[in-house]
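Every protein is a chain of amino acids, and every chain bends into a shape of its own. The fold becomes a row of whole numbers, each drawn from a learned catalogue of backbone shapes. The protein below has been through that process, and both of its lines are reproduced in full.
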Amino acid sequence: MDPGGRGLPGVAAGQTWQTDYRVGDPASGADFRWTASASGPTEIAVPADRFVVFLIRYSRVVARAPGGRMPGGYRGPAEACVWHAPELGRVVRFEFEARPQFSAREQQAIELTRIARAP
């Protein structure tokens, strides 16, 4: 999912994929590996309306290089669920949970609350 809230065009149940990327420099950066799978269609209600959606489940492991504030390095899992409504071409609900190795668990949930439709 991109930051604009759009999911994958043409997503279909049973699809799986993986994305690897690095953030920062080799000495103190972090390597990310996201795996994803899609299921659906199903229906979901959010404050904006009811939508037929595909559920995309993401899981991630981040590995931070030794150095900086964590001399021994770091590994931590995270999961995200994205409900993508093809009729809108965007995500209508997003949930994220991270379980870092050395800090508190992080949880987020975001829903589409309103759609401004032309009269």
In short: The chain has a mean pLDDT of 81. Strands lie at 16-23, 30-46, 49-64, 74-85, 90-98, 106-111. The chain is about 0% helix and 55% strand.
